[in-house]
Structure formats: C-alpha cells, structure tokens
Design brief:
- It is a single chain.
- By secondary structure, the chain is of the alpha/beta class.
- It is built from twelve helices and 19 strands.
- The protein is elongated.
Length: 419
C-alpha cells in the first residue's frame, strides 16, 4: 500500500523530504476565472496556469523517468493544468495509466475545478489516485457568477449566476463521491477581497460536513489582462484570520507554495533546470514503438522534408531496419475540401506512424493529428536527419514559431490545402 504521508502538499512534515512534479499535459480549460491568465512559457512567474511547455502523455512519462534519476526523493505525480485535467480527460487518464504501469510506487494527485470530475471518479480511483484538490471559491451562485466569466459543461456555456450554480452543484456532488473511494480531498479557495470574503468560513463548514480533509486559502495574485488585474492582494494578517476561521471546521493548509503547472522538486524549492528539460522533452517523439514503428514524410522528391502538409497529395512512409532506414511506400492523403474530417481520416491512415515530418502545417491538422498520437514535426532538411531524431528519441529542432504560425493562418479553413 502506498504511503500517503509522502505527499508534501498534504503533509507539512513531508515538505522538505519528498518532492513532487506537476505534469503539464492538460492545456484546455472548461471555465474562465476572472483572475486567471494562463500564459505559457513565463519562467519568472510561479502560479497555477503557467508552464514552460505542454507534454503529451508519452512525453510526460519519459520526462518523469528522467526526473526520478535526478530526484530520488520524488514521490508524487500531479496533474494540475495548465488548464483542467478533466477538460483534457483522455490525456489525463492515459498519463495516469502509463505511469502506473511503469512506476506503480508513485502517488497520484489531481487538481481540478471539479466541473467535469464526476464521470471519472471511479476510473481515477482504479488508477490509484490518492489525492484530489478541488478549487472552490464560495457557496453563493450570484457571487460566483462575478468570479467566473463563463462555465462550459458539455457543449453548453453558462454565464452569471447560472454559471455559479452549475459549477457549485458539480463541486459539492464530487466531495462525498471521492471520499467513498478513499481519496483524500483538499479544497483550494482563492481569497478575492470584495467578492468572497464572507463566504470562506461557511464554505469551510460545508465542505467539512461533506468529508473534505483539508482546506487551503490562497491570496489572489493580480494578473495583467484579466478582469481582476487591479484587485487588491490580501495581506498576511487577512490570510491568517481566514485560516483561524476555517480551522473551526477543517484543517487548514499552512505551507502552500502557489505552484506552477510544471513545478518539480521540493515544495517551494523547484529545480531551475527542469524548465529546459521539459522544453526538450516536449520536442521528443515518444510513443509505443511496437504499435507505431513508421514515420511519414511530406516531401516533393523523397530526399528532403520540404512540403507543406496541406499541399501533400502523397506521403512517403519510412521505417527503421537493422540496415538503416527503409522506404516502405507512398500513401495518398485524403482529398481536400472536407474540413477537419480530412485530418481525422489522415490520422487513421497513419495509425502505424509515430511521427509526421513536414515543412509546415496549419493549426487544425496539428491539433487533430497530435491528439491521435502522431507527433507532427515541422522542419526543413534531409529526411534522414529527421528520422535520426525520431528514432533516437533526441530533441529535434522545429521551425521558428513565426514561420509555423504563418502556415497555420494561411490554412484557416479556405477549403483548399489545409481544409
């Protein structure tokens, strides 16, 4: 049985002994908090929603493998964004499955707004999740409607007090369901002066009655380009008063480090080298070698990676052999003019390929293909150089973002090349 006392966020005695890592595999979010600006790649900020890169589940497992050698005291695998784990449920569950298979001794921790958590509670319990944090900012739907710009449940978007009501219902429903599975539950509450000051103590009482184990009051961090960019950050005296009040009902957390979505190391002592490491891992091709042993290439003549994906009528397929790389065949790409369905068909055509080398590609095909497990690498140069990087698992240099973005904007759905 796993020793849950090794979780530094839930147990202050483990803070200076055991490390944790947050895996940024969940970029999408299903709510918009008025205090949140999820800027990626902002190394000078330490707050949720910030990460140096986003990883695929396979890249995340590879990254953790490297970290374990670097940090022998690593005990917790957490997923906290940079969006919400259950707005990215497939990626979240696949990451947990892969890590459980290879590293069964690790503790699993998830941090969520709770909106879409309920359908997955049985599954995360079966996967060995021991700790779940739910961010709850009050009990009054009208006040919550001022804290969130919108809430999206399924395909429906809610605003105002209706958004607050829908979110709150889902959150309250999940706490006893998690406890019934033996999962330790922590409530995170962002203290927003003038918005939820008076709701924090009643919230503590409510979640305690539902079975929550711990509550963490976090002072809001004013973020530029948000509705609350000019909100006053609570001082230490106010925060201490809130912790005293909630302690009447629930154990308060007193050692929060307000961690990034890619935090790694001891709590409050993140390893500065991991920012470079995570960026490198995000460019690696890491997948199941047995199921995906080929690489597709967009090329005009079979020598260079030099063709835009939307213009490719055929892709060259290569595989690695004992005697080097072997050209296997050409595969026809689906006809243009059918929108996103074209890229879904292409992902099926390339189901045995771990990567696709292209000169450039639009945003729509990138999203669809990579979601299917195919790493799309934008590069220029000899095909063999791209294949070397793919099969060796080393980092590969992609096109500068300006070039890649240009390709994406030119393929914005004109029902030609990238459509």
């Amino acid at each position: 049985m796993k020793d849950v006392a090794k979780h530094p966020c839930f147990n202050i005695e483990a803070k200076g002994t055991y490390g944790r890592v947050h895996l940024p595999i969940a970029p999408k979010c299903n709510i918009q908090c008025n205090y949140c600006n999820r800027k990626y790649d902002c190394v000078n900020e330490s707050r949720p929603g910030v990460t140096s890169a986003v990883l695929s589940p396979e890249q995340a497992v590879h990254y953790v493998g490297i970290l374990r050698k670097k940090m022998p005291n690593l005990s917790v695998i957490g997923i906290a964004g940079p969006g919400d784990p259950f707005a990215n449920a497939n990626e979240t569950l696949e990451t947990l499955r892969l890590i459980k298979e290879k590293m069964p001794d690790m503790l699993f921790c998830l941090s969520t707004n709770g909106l879409e958590l309920e359908p997955y509670i049985d599954e995360i319990a079966n996967l060995g999740v021991t700790h779940v944090t739910i961010t709850m900012n009050g009990l009054d739907p009208e006040a919550l409607g001022k804290i969130y710009s919108w809430v999206r449940l399924g395909k429906k978007v809610y605003r105002g007090s209706e958004a607050g009501r829908v979110l709150l219902e889902q959150q309250l429903k999940c706490i006893p369901l998690l406890k019934a599975k033996g999962i330790i539950v922590k409530i995170n509450t962002i203290v927003l002066p003038g918005y939820n000051d008076l709701m924090i103590k009643p919230l503590a009482e409510k979640v305690s009655h539902l079975g929550a184990d711990l509550m963490n009051c976090i002072p809001v961090h004013p973020n530029a380009e948000t509705v609350f960019e000019n909100i006053e950050e609570p001082d230490k005296k106010l925060m201490a008063r809130h912790k005293i009040q909630i302690s009447e009902f629930i154990k308060p957390m007193t050692h929060c480090a307000r961690c990034r979505a890619d935090a790694a190391g001891l709590l409050g002592q993140d390893d500065p080298e991991t920012a470079c490491l995570i960026k490198e891992c995000s460019t690696m091709v890491v997948t199941d070698e047995k199921l995906r042993n080929k690489v597709a290439v967009a090329t005009y003549e079979g020598l260079l990676v030099n063709q835009h994906l939307g213009e490719a009528r055929n892709l060259y397929i290569f595989e690695q052999t004992k005697n080097g790389y072997k050209f296997v065949e050409q595969r026809k790409t689906p006809d243009a003019g059918i929108g996103e369905a074209r890229w879904k068909l292409l992902s099926e055509t390339l189901s045995d390929c771990r990567a696709l080398l292209v000169g450039s590609a639009g945003e729509k095909p990138l999203k669809v293909l990579q979601a299917s497990g195919i790493k799309v690498i934008q590069m220029t140069g000899l095909i063999d150089l791209g294949l070397d990087a793919v099969y060796s698992g080393s980092a590969i240099r992609a096109l500068p973002k300006t070039d890649a973005s240009k390709a994406g904007k030119e393929c914005g759905g004109n029902m030609r090349g990238c459509a």
